[in-house]
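Exercise 7. Predict the joint structure of the components listed below.
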Amino acid sequence: MKYYSLNKTAPEVGFKEAVIRGLAPDKGLYFPTAITPLTDAFFSQLSDMDTAEIGYEVIRQFVGKDIEPTQLRRIVAETLSFPIPLKKITDQVSVLELFHGPTLAFKDVGARFMARCLAYFQAQKSTSQEVTVLVATSGDTGGAVAHGFYQVEGVKVVILYPSGKVSGLQEKQLTTLGANISALEVQGTFDDCQAMVKQAFLDQDILSQRQLTSANSINVARWLPQMFYYFMAYQQRQDISKPWVVSVPSGNYGNICAGMMARRLGLKIDHFVAGTNANDVIPKYLASGDYQAQPSVATISNAMDVGDPSNFVRIDALFEGNWEGLKEVLSSYSFTDAQTLEAICSLYEQTNYVADPHGSVGYLALERFLETHPQWEGAFLETAHPVKFQDVMPKELLDKIPLPQRVKGLMDQPKQSTVIDSYSQLKSYLLDT
Ligand SMILES: *Cc1c(COP(=O)(O)O)cnc(C)c1O
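Solution:
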């Protein structure tokens, strides 16, 4: 399998090189040169397959010969080592819970897969040069990457996060592991963290001495494994006679784009809905045909505070820039924080289900679509556990949110971080440690 750069001025590369590079040299995102639908035989066996087998069949054309089949099977099985249940909450609506992984967010799936691919490529090398994964986080990415790469041989992880701007639990998830994981607490905003990371990737002094790689959501090894759970959701549908819509709370549009890839492989999802907060570039684009990036706006569903979604170019590539064609498969609606909170409460009152602010946006978008499609069934993705967003959840629901076993005890562990406030401090950190 080859990947080309969506900026079209870089050479094609295989899976391994696309994973190690992250972004193509012309700064474009990598995209597969061919997408071959899965066979009828695959779909007729789907209901009896186990999740690791499904994942292997889904991903293998995109990995090609770069990972041996037995190793790829192991990587997929380790990636999917936690449940991803589809729960029916009303006659028409189900929720796909993506938060049963180690850091309680869907990013665990992509991060675990990518970490294991990189570990495999590191082990194959004749030299023992370490790779440094450098990543900026506004919250969920950092924890997922830290846990995904924890104790992976030959890989060091450096995470930059904005001091005081991630939730208490999120901070503990990225500052308590130790070993090969370091957290840099930046006196600034998420944008400052991201700017420093970008500068490091262009700094020849660093590049000549360290092998840097990124683990953000544009990496193909984080993006593509997100297809797995769309198949797992379909497999758990009880009745497939009605048309089916899947609603994805979206920020950078990597998750929903993976769903659209799953559809391209033949999975029967009839329509997608992208739920957004006040950052509404895509709903506006679908309405007008005019893509206008905007500065991001802060909301309570902060993992979706993105003003220029980086993965949207991949969706465009899937539809070859055909806006009319895209609109047949994708709808998108934007909601305010007040609507999001209100929906968390009304969903709880009607169904006893507690959604987090991101899932709530997905739920709202699904309901909006179903208003005009009463014969359909739908699912929304619950992308994180509500306990991660306790500080913004409605107060009256806080005691309805149990702390999952795997994060109990985390709050008592000491935080280990290094405070920095300038690029030069990041640079010395990377060169001296
Ligand atoms: C990252 C994240 C999103 C947005 O996902 P994209 O792939 O960037 O669209 C939604 N919800 C949660 C909880 C997240 O962490």
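Discussion. The pocket of pyridoxal-5'-phosphate is lined by residues 105, 107, 140, 217, 249-255, 303-304, 358, 383-384 (CB under 6 Å).
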